[in-house]
Amino acid sequence: VQLQASGGGLVQAGGSLRLSCAASGRTVSYYVIGWFRQAPGKEREFVGSINWSGENTYYADSVKGRFTISRDNAKMTTDLQMNSLKAEDTAVYYCGARLHTQSMFAYWGQGTLVTVSS
Fold this sequence. Notes:
The protein is mainly β. It has strands at residues 2-6, 9-12, 17-24, 31-38, 45-50, 57-59, 67-72, 77-82, 91-99, 107-108, 112-117.
């Protein structure tokens, strides 16, 4: 499975941005897709995830109510809609994939930079 994240950029605080994770190589219909981020000088942290059917989503407390994950298995894309962005959301965002039967994310995209100016 190959993943490619895109959609990052510079946005003002309070603004919105939509990231996309495109998968290729094999169908990801039975994969959990997760979004993670890594701010400068910090460890990578979990942002949210969506199960293979798209029925269940999970979010870190820091983004709950502001970020929404959705997926389109036919297009093999997973989007991260980010609203009410804050300066502390500035980070490189990565998408990852794991089989729904596994606990570790085995596949990763290259990351896309999101910069929120205050």
